[in-house]
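Hi there. Long-time user, first ticket. I'm pasting a complex I've been working with (about 227 residues overall). I'd like to know whether the download I got is complete or cut off, because the file seemed smaller than I expected. Thanks.
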Amino acid sequence: AQSVTQPDIHITVSEGASLELRCNYSYGATPYLFWYVQSPGQGLQLLLKYFSGDTLVQGIKGFEAEFKRSQSSFNLRKPSVHWSDAAEYFCASLLSVGNEKLTFGTGTRLTIIP
Amino acid sequence: NAGVMQNPRHLVRRRGQEARLRCSPMKGHSHVYWYRQLPEEGLKFMVYLQKENIIDESGMPKERFSAEFPKEGPSILRIQQVVRGDSAAYFCASSPLLVNEQFFGPGTRLTVL
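Hi, the file is complete. Here it is re-exported in full:
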């Protein structure tokens, strides 16, 4: 069965600093990969997705993620965080078109300090 | 185009009562998914429906939980005889046909007293 691991439960960074959130997936083939953001009390918003092709994916709000097959990773990055980026971030995978169950990691809570 | 709508946003029930959660997908979306988020956890898939059909309910508890997506009207997630362990946020997502991106609603936060 596929699984998604986010090893960091909570990360604190200073405003303006760079950010990297880790995500590893466990599945033989390459799944479809997503990063979602959830603000307190809100639903999930899609930041970016990877299906195939270029392994560096650009998303909204200045985020990007890099797919590395050799490491089974899909880490999310941002060069300079803003206080408004404080939220919970979820990595998710989808096995294939037609298998529509998103498998989520347990999330990483991001705190921004001034 | 309005997003995915869920109501109520907050629902309080006493043990043994029934909870009905509603989800209206985005216009033009024919697929609906329900996920449950327990406190301090990620979202877990429950069920995937198309109009009048349950496609995959492998994540649904075998008892007390049911879901439907009728030809007309919203999708309904129904929990009978709720217990405290059902307290969670329930999210609905929708997608168009042949597009593997899911758009999420704001969720319904169920509290069982």
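A couple of notes from our side: The first strand of chain B starts at residue 5 and ends at 7. The mean pLDDT of chain B is 93.
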